[in-house]
Structures are given as structure tokens and as C-alpha cells.
Write a structure and sequence with these properties.
With 98 residues, this protein is of the alpha+beta class. It is built from 3 helices and 2 strands. The structure holds zinc ion. Zinc ion binds next to loops. Zinc ion (ZN) binds next to loops.
Length: 98
């Protein structure tokens, strides 16, 4: 439980039905998406942690464009090209192949 690990705060959502806390990712993992990746690479838009944390902060589902927001233009172009080759409509807000 969160109280047992006071150094890990996490994010808590309170609804009329109750509340739940999203604990931070473990050591060595990206604090945004919970995946192990280099900082210059996009966050993992397919990560459940990323989607939950993003929705808690922004009130909507994250897209690959959100996951690549911090990347260089060259990195964004490369990832967009490769994801679209795999059938993901990146510019249309897609996350998974359609
Ligand atoms: Zn990440």
C-alpha cells in the first residue's frame, strides 16, 4: 500500500464510487510511461501506465503525437513513418494498428 512506501507518492483519482492510486513506475523506468526507454525516444503510447497517468492529468486518451511531444522533429518523423507502415494512423490520433 502507498502508506507503506512514503517515498512513492503516485497519483490518486477520487470518484463518487471510491478512489484509486496509480503508483509510480519502478526504478530505471520512465516516470511518464513506465517503460524502459532512452529519454530521446517517444513514450510508449500503448503502455497502460502511460494511458492512465495521461488521462488523470489531461482528461483524455493519449496519442502517439502526445507520446512524441518531447522528441526532435527528426525522431517524430521517423516514428510517425514507421508506425504508419505498421498501420497506425498516427496523425489521426491512433495508438494501435487499425
Ligand atoms: Zn516514457
Amino acid at each position: 500500500m502507498a502508506q507503506d512506501r512514503p517515498n512513492q507518492r503516485g497519483m490518486t483519482v477520487v470518484t463518487k464510487e471510491g478512489s484509486w492510486t496509480l503508483l509510480p513506475p519502478g526504478p530505471g523506468r520512465c516516470t511518464e510511461c513506465g517503460t524502459v526507454h532512452e529519454p530521446e525516444l517517444p513514450h510508449n503510447a500503448q503502455s497502460l501506465y502511460y494511458q492512465a497517468a495521461f488521462h488523470m492529468q489531461h482528461g483524455r486518451t493519449a496519442t502517439w503525437l502526445d507520446a512524441m511531444e518531447h522528441c526532435s522533429d527528426a525522431m517524430k518523423a521517423l516514428w510517425t513513418e514507421k508506425l504508419e507502415e505498421l498501420g497506425v494512423k498516427v496523425r489521426g490520433g491512433g495508438v494501435n494498428p487499425s
